[in-house]
Design goal:
With about 450 residues, the protein is α/β, with parallel strands linked by helices. The protein is built from 16 helices and 17 strands. Helix 10 packs across helix 15 and helix 13 crosses helix 15.
């Protein structure tokens, strides 16, 4: 069985948040294999832990993937400030005599954005609306490469490493079975320090906001990397709960300063994305048509609204609003084929994470001391059948079935993009529906 099929059978998907099935990425040829090890979002520490503690598996996965995509170069793009992690990587590369390069990234946000990473390593701008493969690159992240190595050994994806941070008594990194309730993750970090809180699922810039009342039924999937507990009255919660009407009404206060465009990472690598023009379209109630198609290029990094805008309004959400209207009309971005050239001054407009963290009012959680790593054992898990881009998996087990860890419980529908789902613990299937498979031990 070749690597692509092993990875498909193991249910490996992009572990950094996107959840794109990895076997599809591997079924290509590229000049560069780039590993995003930047830990893009502020506060997170998961990839740093993996680079220290699972270095050999990481390098093993990179070498397998490099051979599979016939890459001339394999490059780990990691922030130079991660001195311990860089030392671990260099030592393992030397010991294994691996043909893998370490690229020293500057410390800026969003250094780990896929297209930013390509530009930083190669100097090439991915075409607007395109993918890294268009410029000879395949990009993957740290945990995905470890999972590729595990797949080569016959081990499917059944567990997830998660940073639990913020208002918890014992901030720590944990390893949990897929399907572990968020509430149990918080308990593994000693519980919360406050009673009225919300949870950021992922990073503070691009993660989703979860109200405390939504917690029951929320479980860990293959794409989760962090849970950050913040007060329910925090600035980020207020921003996240704005209605569409509020967002559009506030957009009319735009002063057209252009700061959102001048610091937009995609604009700076040469894409024709101008958030201030999208704000103008809403401000003056323009009819949304092909002339606004650049809104489809927004990556959602949030620099425009969380850092650049002096009015505290929401260019990112306005971009998303316009993009939604365009999709309703069947309008897709069409690149005119012109050369993409990075804009002058890009190096001087990079967003420093320390200043960003301060603007987000998250200084209390920056560089939190981490307690000992913990493996969490569960008595019951609810494994989602949709943990990836594409079609939901279809259950292949029934109530009453005995399953073992790693056994297939959800299969990709025939001929569709998707991912295999496996039991994350030994036990008995106690519930099956179109959304999940519930397994209980004993």
């Amino acid at each position: 069985m070749d690597l692509v099929e092993l990875v498909r059978q193991a249910g490996v998907v992009g572990a950094g948040g996107a959840g794109f099935p990895t076997h599809v990425k591997l079924n290509a040829e590229a000049e560069y294999l780039i590993i995003n090890a930047a830990e893009c979002e502020p506060l997170l520490q998961t990839d740093q832990f993996l680079m220290r503690e699972r270095t050999a598996e990481l390098i093993g996965g990179i070498l397998l993937t490099k051979a599979q995509v016939k890459a001339r170069k394999a490059v780990i793009a990691v922030k130079g400030k991660y001195a311990r992690e860089v030392a671990c990587l260099k030592e393992t590369v030397a010991r294994l005599e691996a043909d893998v390069e370490i690229h020293d990234l500057q410390n800026f946000y969003p250094a780990g954005d896929e297209q930013m990473t390509v530009f930083e390593v190669t100097g090439r701008s991915v075409p607007p609306g395109g993918i890294p493969l268009n410029v000879g690159c395949v990009v993957s992240n740290v945990m995905t490469m470890i999972n590729v190595f595990e797949a080569s050994q016959g081990h499917p994806v059944t567990d997830k490493y998660v940073s639990v941070l913020g208002e918890v008594k014992e901030p720590r990194l944990i390893r949990v079975p897929l399907g572990t309730p968020f509430e149990d993750c918080l308990e593994a970090a000693g519980g919360t320090t406050i009673s009225d809180y919300c949870i950021i699922r992922g990073g503070p810039m691009m993660g989703g906001m979860i109200n405390k009342n939504q917690l029951p039924g929320m479980t860990i999937t293959k794409t989760d990397g962090a849970l950050i507990v913040i007060p329910a009255d925090h600035y980020l919660v207020t921003r996240a709960t704005e209605t569409e009407t509020q967002i559009l009404n506030r957009a009319r206060a735009c002063i057209q300063c252009g700061f959102c465009t001048e610091q937009c990472p995609r604009y700076l690598i040469g894409h024709p994305l101008h958030p201030h023009k999208m704000m103008k379209a809403v401000k003056y109630a323009e009819e949304i048509n092909e002339s606004h198609q650049e809104a489809l290029l927004c990556c959602g990094c949030g620099v425009c609204e969380m850092y650049s805008c002096p009015m505290g309004i929401s260019p990112r959400k306005v971009n998303f609003y316009i993009a939604g209207k365009l999709r309703e009309k069947g309008i897709r971005y069409q690149h005119d084929g012109s050369d993409i050239i990075a804009r002058d001054g890009r190096e001087f407009r990079k967003v420093p994470p320390a200043r960003l963290i301060s603007r987000l009012d998250l200084n209390d959680y920056d560089h939190q001391p981490m307690h000992d790593f913990r493996e969490v054992v569960m008595e019951k898990v609810s494994v989602s059948l949709r943990q990836h881009i594409g079609a939901s998996s279809q259950p292949v087990v029934s109530v009453g079935d005995r399953v073992v860890k790693g056994q297939l419980i959800g299969a990709t529908p025939e001929g569709q993009l998707g991912s295999m789902i496996h039991a994350s613990m030994d036990g008995q299937v106690v519930d099956v529906n179109e959304r999940q498979v519930v397994i209980a031990r004993g």
